[in-house]
Each structure stands twice: as structure tokens, then as C-alpha cells.
Prior knowledge:
Helices cover about 40% and strands about 40% of the residues. The chain has about 110 residues and is of the alpha+beta class. The longest helix is centred in the first third of the chain and has 43 residues.
Amino acid sequence: MSALFLHAVALYHTEIQFFEEEKKWYEADYLMKQALIYVKQTLASTPENVSSLTQTVSFVHGQATYRATRIEPDVWSVTVSCITNAQFRYDVQFQFDASTNNISVWREAY
């Protein structure tokens, strides 16, 4: 009986750990989505004479820092780093075409 009880407790502990990890990823993903909306709007309205931008933006669930470098008249190379309030980090790199509002060459860094 006690072996069965200990096994159930161990399973419960594992589920709690999984939930906490999943919660971190959910918050980081939500923060990244907010950051992408902001970055896309900013880059789409940036004058052509600006060749690079770097900015840190605060959101409810954390902050995002992005660095964008123009590689063609309408195409930007962008790196976004999000850090949640729980200090969980999520980094991505991509290219953004301001004329079509499309993201391509998406890479996640852990």
C-alpha cells in the first residue's frame, strides 16, 4: 500500500513540475507574440533613411529587447529577446519584409 501511495505522490510531483515548466513557456510565448506585433508595427513605419533600430519594451508579463538591421529597402534582419517576469528567456531571429508584413527565416535560440 505504501509503495502505491509513494508512486502516486511521485507522479503528482512530476505533474506539478511539468505544469510549472509549461506555464513558463506559455508566458514566454505570449510575451513574444506581443513583442512581434510591436516590432512589426514599428519597422513598417520606420523611415527609409534609418538603417538599424534597438529598443527595449516593457509589457505586463515581462520585457522584450529587439535589434533590427535593414538588409534591403523593405527587409529587416531582426533579433528579439524576451524575458518574462519569472526570468524565463526566449530568443528568436528572423527576417521581416515591411512591404508584405511577412516574417521568414525564423530561428529560435535557447
